[in-house]
Design a protein that fits this description.
The protein contains eight helices and nine strands. It is of the alpha+beta class. It has one domain: Sandwich (Jelly Rolls). The structure holds 2-oxoglutaric acid and fe (ii) ion. The site of 2-oxoglutaric acid has 9 residues, from strand 3, strand 8 and strand 9. The site of fe (ii) ion has 5 residues, from loops.
Length: about 260
C-alpha cells in the first residue's frame, strides 16, 4: 500500500493515515501481514544504520536491544513514534480486532540488533507477542547475494485473542517452550502454511502479534540485522499473571545474554 504524501522532502518520514486501517486489517486477516510501503526514507535509514554501526562497535558482535519509550525519544524515529496518524491507526485496528478500546494508548518501542553467534541464538524463537498489534520496521537487513537475510517467518492468525490472561500464559508456554523447536522444522512450516515475509527496509509491516506465532530467521554471524518494533495494545496489561510472566521473560533474556 502506498502512502499519498509522496511530495515530502527526501529526509522526512511519511505521515501515516488512519484511513489505511480497513485495508491493513483486511490484509492482516487474509495474508497475516499488512504493509505500508516506503514510510521511512533512505536518508533516515542511513542515519539509523550509522548509529547501529557505532553501537555494534561499543557492544561487540552480539545480540542487544533497547525497549521502552526512552531510547527512541529525540532520535530521528521520534516523528514516527509520535505521529498522531499512527496512534489513531493503531487504536482503530485494536478496536476492530478486539471489540473494545485499547487498555492504553501507549506504543511500546523496541530496537533489536542481531549479530555474531548470539544473533543466531535469538533467531527462530517462535512466539506470540503480548500485544494485539505489532509493527515491524526493518532498518538493516543483510542483502548480499547468497547471504541469509533473516526475514520474518510467521504462522498467520493461528489463534484468537485469548480473553483470560492465565489461558494466554499457559498457551504461550505450550507453544513457545514445549513445542518451541517444532516450528523451526521446514516440514512443519509447510504443513501449517507458514509465511516468509521478505523484509524491505523503510516499509512498515503490521501483524496481529497476539494471534500469529512468528520469529525472525537467522542470518550469518558476520552480518548485522536491525529491526524496530512498535507494539500496541496488551489486553492483559493489568493482570497479576502478566507481571509474573514478564519477569520470567526478562530472566530468559538475561540468561540468553550470557556467553
Ligand atoms: O526482529 C524481528 O524480525 C521480529 C522480532 C519480534 O517478533 C519481537 O520482538 O516481538
Ligand atoms: Fe514478536
Amino acid at each position: 500500500m502506498n502512502v499519498l504524501n509522496d511530495e515530502r522532502p527526501l529526509d522526512e518520514i511519511a505521515r501515516v493515515d488512519v484511513e489505511s486501517a480497513q485495508a491493513l486489517a483486511q490484509s492482516m486477516d487474509d495474508d497475516g501481514v499488512g504493509v505500508l510501503d516506503d514510510i521511512v526514507p533512505a536518508a533516515i535509514l542511513t542515519k539509523l544504520r550509522s548509529g547501529v554501526a557505532e553501537l555494534v562497535g561499543q557492544h561487540g558482535t552480539r545480540y542487544f536491544g533497547f525497549s521502552g519509550a526512552q531510547w527512541i525519544t529525540g532520535t530521528c524515529l521520534a516523528p514516527l513514534f509520535e505521529d498522531p496518524g499512527l496512534h489513531a491507526l493503531l487504536r482503530q485496528l485494536y478496536v476492530r480486532k478486539m471489540g473494545t478500546p485499547p487498555p492504553s494508548d501507549r506504543i511500546y518501542p523496541v530496537m533489536r540488533v542481531l549479530s555474531g553467534k548470539q544473533g543466531i541464538r535469538h533467531s527462530n524463537i517462535f512466539h506470540y507477542d503480548s500485544y494485539a498489534i505489532s509493527i515491524l520496521l526493518p532498518v538493516l537487513i543483510p542483502n548480499d547475494p547468497g547471504e541469509l537475510a533473516g526475514h520474518l517467518v510467521m504462522f498467520p492468525n493461528l489463534r484468537n485473542a485469548r480473553r483470560l490472561a492465565i489461558v494466554n500464559i499457559v498457551e504461550k508456554a505450550i507453544m513457545e517452550k514445549m513445542l518451541g523447536r517444532i516450528w523451526r522444522s521446514a516440514r512443519v512450516q509447510k504443513w501449517f502454511s507458514a509465511k516468509v515475509v521478505t523484509l524491505k527496509p523503510g516499509n512498515l509491516y503490521f501483524i496481529w502479534g497476539l494471534r500469529s506465532l512468528h520469529a525472525n530467521q537467522a542470518c550469518a554471524p558476520s552480518s548485522v540485522r536491525c529491526t524496530v518494533l512498535f507494539h500496541f495494545g496488551d489486553p492483559h496489561e493489568s493482570s497479576v499473571f502478566k507481571g509474573l510472566s514478564q519477569r520470567l521473560h526478562d530472566m530468559k533474556l538475561r540468561h540468553m545474554a550470557r556467553d
